[in-house]
Amino acid sequence: MSLFFTFLLLFSSLLPSLNALTYRYYDHTCPNLESIIAREVHLATVNDKTVPAALLRMHFHDCFIRGCDGSVLLDSKGKNKAEKDGPPNISLHAFYVIDKAKKAIESACPGVVSCADILALAARDAVVVSGGPHWEVPKGRKDGRISKANETIQLPFPTFNFSQLQQSFSQRGLSIQDLVALSGGHTLGFAHCSSFQNRIHNFNSTVDIDPLLQPSFAASLQSICPAHNKVKNAGSPMDSTTTVFDNAYFKLLLQGRSIFSSDQSLLSTPYSKALVSKFANEQRHFEKAFVKSMVKMSRIAGAGEEVRLNCRVVR
Ligand code: HEM
Ligand SMILES: *[C@@H]1O[C@H](CO)[C@@H](O)[C@H](O)[C@H]1NC(C)=O
Ligand SMILES: *[C@@H]1O[C@H](CO)[C@@H](O)[C@H](O)[C@H]1NC(C)=O
Ligand SMILES: *[C@@H]1O[C@H](CO)[C@@H](O)[C@H](O)[C@H]1NC(C)=O
Ligand SMILES: *[C@@H]1O[C@H](CO)[C@@H](O)[C@H](O)[C@H]1NC(C)=O
């Protein structure tokens, strides 16, 4: 009997580190969690159409640095510069939406829901409010205590080629199918000139423009982003329907109308190109693959051990 309890104790002390996420994690401790978050995402989107794209990217960024542990949400403190103040933070915004949701959740069920889970759910709701699919999000992540600006260089760059992207994803347990499906996140949002500058000025020593760009599209990107760009925050929508979660991104990609070199590179291997065509042909195929890959990405384990009370500061 005492041996049994010793085992039980040992086992339960190991449980948090296993990071086993479950779909019904908050069923008893915070039953209204999901409707609270859905409401906040909806309200924020009514006010600002750029919110869904920001939340989706924020979750991706969170999961790729230190696992999905809410590290992207922490503010810099003292001498520590946090992820959100690191170099590729140009597109990060809408942190206030997470703050508002957290506040509402803390008053409904204090101290139980992690910020990492709130962000994972908000990213799902961002897709839903944009007309995309709904899916169940596994929950039970814990919040991390570390966020370092210099670690954001571990995010994939928009200049990456296919093998660099594949490596970045496989280091996190994600496949080529995940890479292609998740790149479809670029159906939402906006890119600044600096992120695709490489394709339209000094592409290499012999050509100025990436020859894989459709010429008229390249010309329009160049006119938005001249070589010596003086317009602050200039840039391009990611696809033709930036607030709608659809497969236009894949259709445009096949026409030479993608924004980043990383997008373009998805056409550079037969397997990934076939996936792009499949997703371009059938919205349903894209949605199914995207959902599967989002759940997988959202399971990238972090080393968090706490539930923050304020998503911007550790406990
Ligand atoms: C495959 C590797 C990826 C690269 C290299 C990449 C790169 C980028 C870059 C450079 C930007 C624009 C930043 C700016 O100029 O403002 C961006 C925006 C965005 N990315 Fe990605 N990304 C990748 C994967 C993903 C994934 C997996 C998702 C989510 C599933 C995602 C969702 C977004 C969204 C929604 C935006 C628009 C953000 C906004 O408008 O606020 N990206 N990405
Ligand atoms: C991005 O980082 C700069 C400093 O490096 C900071 O001033 C700015 O507020 C950050 N942007 C966001 C959205 O956090
Ligand atoms: C970030 O900086 C810390 C020191 O502040 C260093 O130990 C760490 O290796 C750096 N990480 C990266 C990815 O450069
Ligand atoms: C991708 O880029 C890396 C780093 O620049 C380079 O070593 C590699 O040869 C490139 N791969 C392809 C297929 O172009
Ligand atoms: C520049 O890019 C073009 C088109 O991809 C290619 O044909 C050419 O070999 C490249 N030149 C150099 C020097 O890399």
TrEMBL record:
Taxonomic classification: Eukaryota, Viridiplantae, Streptophyta, Embryophyta, Tracheophyta
Entry-linked InterPro entries: Haem_peroxidase, Haem_peroxidase_sf, Peroxidase_pln, Peroxidases_heam-ligand_BS, Secretory_peroxidase
Give the residues the record marks as binding Ca(2+) 1.
Answer: 62, 67, 69, 71, 83
Question: What are the annotated disulfide bridges?
Answer: 30-109, 63-68, 115-311, 193-225
Name any cofactors this protein relies on.
Ca(2+); heme b
Catalytic activity as recorded in UniProt: 2 a phenolic donor + H2O2 = 2 a phenolic radical donor + 2 H2O
Plant heme peroxidase family profile domain location is 20-315
Name assigned to this protein: Peroxidase
Q: Where does it sit, as one GO cellular component term?
A: extracellular region
Binding-site positions, Ca(2+) 2: 187, 239, 242, 246
Its Gene Ontology molecular function terms? heme binding; lactoperoxidase activity; metal ion binding
In the UniProt record, what gene is named as encoding this protein?
A: LOC111496276
- Family matches, as Pfam families: peroxidase
Q: What does the cofactor field's note say?
A: Binds 2 calcium ions per subunit. Binds 1 heme b (iron(II)-protoporphyrin IX) group per subunit.
Q: Which family does it belong to?
A: Belongs to the peroxidase family. Classical plant (class III) peroxidase subfamily. Belongs to the peroxidase family. Ascorbate peroxidase subfamily.
Where does the chain bind heme b? 186
- Hey, what's the signal peptide range on this chain? 1-20
Please describe what this protein does: Removal of H(2)O(2), oxidation of toxic reductants, biosynthesis and degradation of lignin, suberization, auxin catabolism, response to environmental stresses such as wounding, pathogen attack and oxidative stress. These functions might be dependent on each isozyme/isoform in each plant tissue.
* Localization, UniProt: Secreted
What is annotated as the active site? 61 (proton acceptor)
| Source superkingdom | Eukaryota
UniProt cross-references to CDD domains, sorted A to Z: secretory_peroxidase
Site described as Transition state stabilizer, located at: 57
**Natural source organism:** Cucurbita maxima
